[in-house]
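Objective 1.3, modelling of assemblies. Example input:
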Amino acid sequence: DTEVTQTPKHLVMGMTNKKSLKCEQHMGHRAMYWYKQKAKKPPELMFVYSYEKLSINESVPSRFSPECPNSSLLNLHLHALQPEDSALYLCASSPSPTDYGYTFGSGTRLTVV
Amino acid sequence: DQQVKQNSPSLSVQEGRISILNCDYTNSMFDYFLWYKKYPAEGPTFLISISSIKDKNEDGRFTVFLNKSAKHLSLHIVPSQPGDSAVYFCAASVVYGGSQGNLIFGKGTKLSVKP
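Predicted structure (tokens):
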């Protein structure tokens, strides 16, 4: 298995909803990442998990809450989002935190209404 | 302040010819550079990388050139194929020197290879 699987592929949620994005990999990678990408912009790093511990939080608002239950799984819990949070959310993994040859998932297209 | 710049939003090339995608960076601490390719509805795919101790790295049809003095790198695709049509992201980071930094992406260049 050489993939990073993200679910759902599309999500529409209201500003009062609570939802979660899921990311899974079975490559034995020990670093996992959440990126946010707006249209015609580069991917922007949100969070880094290194050996299941949160190592980087790029000043992301608390309405985004990451979770790494185990080495294969990464979640992003969403609550009280704003319309400007609508974007493509990309998960990536790498063998270690110092290996930048990331494997990216296909992303979750999030629309906040 | 954009540390990694891809000044050409798009590039159109004829099949069989060379595609040259350019990337400039401002942070002299960057010592590791990568190119990613992204098709619509898919995540970016790692393509090729180069560390600052080299000035060239080749992998099949793809070659990355690094000019440290100019803070410039380029990706050459020879020969270009229609399947190469995608958005190409340049990315950079500090890996070997000092404390490790995050991977910083450019805005991307959309390459269209016409049959």
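The CA atoms of residues 7 and 23 of chain B lie 7 Å apart.
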